[in-house]
Amino acid sequence: MTHEDFMKEAIKLSVENVEKGGGPFGAVIVKDGKIVGKGANSVTSHNDPTAHAEIMAIRNAAKELGTFDLSECTIYTSCEPCPMCLGAVYWARLSKMYYGNTKTDAAKIGFDDAFIYKEMELPLEKRSIPAKQLLHDEAYIAFKMWEENPDKIEY
Amino acid sequence: MTHEDFMKEAIKLSVENVEKGGGPFGAVIVKDGKIVGKGANSVTSHNDPTAHAEIMAIRNAAKELGTFDLSECTIYTSCEPCPMCLGAVYWARLSKMYYGNTKTDAAKIGFDDAFIYKEMELPLEKRSIPAKQLLHDEAYIAFKMWEENPDKIEY
Asked: What tens digit of pLDDT does each residue of B92-115 get?
């Protein structure tokens, strides 16, 4: 299969998902020329605000492969990932990304992707969701414990 | 309970999680003075790169409340969210955030939070994960279908 073929699979998932009443987003994860995880936006059907197509595909691929490290995998997503999903792409260590629509396209049809990208670039105190730091010294105890744990599994 | 009490709950989850071999992160979601969702970093225990504390807490709260809209809720997280989790905070429409450690603290003990924030600010072509656009016109079909669907559930 070619890159276009895998992208067509992601697009097919996005189209089928709209037909089922969900958001217009689909994604597949590929390793060694085979699809190892698929996902479609399931926010409203699962009542889960984190259930974007890429998150679902990454979770499914990680489950299928039995590892949190997808560094030998590529993602094909029907739309450029939002900041949440782009963050997930980094944490999953995906090696490459192909996308169809852009975040600007997503913004045009009413999704917040571009807005959230802009918020990310602002310092905490200028963002629209108020944020306040509390109990730093107590919170740091777990960080010290992690640092000093010789058996930790880094990720 | 006070804001400090809820933060202490999030910190307690982070400490217990390190004791169990997981990452040093915990979070709770609060609505009307009651905890409606908890989460601890479960990346290595669940083999799920998306299983950060805030994502877990948001998913649990959404399940508990039966809605993807957590706009009446506040999150208390033991560490400033990474871009993935901050994105989730926006998508969940959380109204306020309290955090303990900062992304700089997280970077100091080996986590990629600060690195991913920097990547987000770069244009796609300058980021460390190569990204390429493919089949835009085909991908846009699902967006048009979404736009034209009078019964869509927006989120």
From this structure: 999 999 999 999 999 999 998 889
Minimal CA separation from B33 to chain A, in Å = 17
- Cβ-defined contact of B101 to A68 (cutoff 8 Å): no
* Per-residue pLDDT reduced to its tens digit, A99-147: 999 999 999 999 988 899 999 989 999 999 999 999 999 999 999 999 9
Q: Strand ranges (DSSP E) for B45-104?
A: 73-79, 96-101
Q: Which of A54, A56, A77, A58 is nearest to A8 (CA)?
A: A77
Q: Which residues of B touch A43 (CB under 8 A)?
A: 68, 91, 155
- Tell me if chain B has a CB within 8 Å of the CB of A14: yes
Give exposure, A59-83, as e/b (b: 16+ Cβ within 10 Å): bbbbeebebbbbeebbbbbbbbbbb
User: Whole-model pTM?
Assistant: 0.96
Asked if B56 contacts B40 with a C-beta cutoff of 8 angstroms, the reply is yes
Which of A34, A24, A27, A36 lies closest to A7, judged by CA?
Answer: A27
Residue A96 and residue B11: Cβ atoms within 8 Å? no
- The residue whose two tokens read 């072509």 is B125
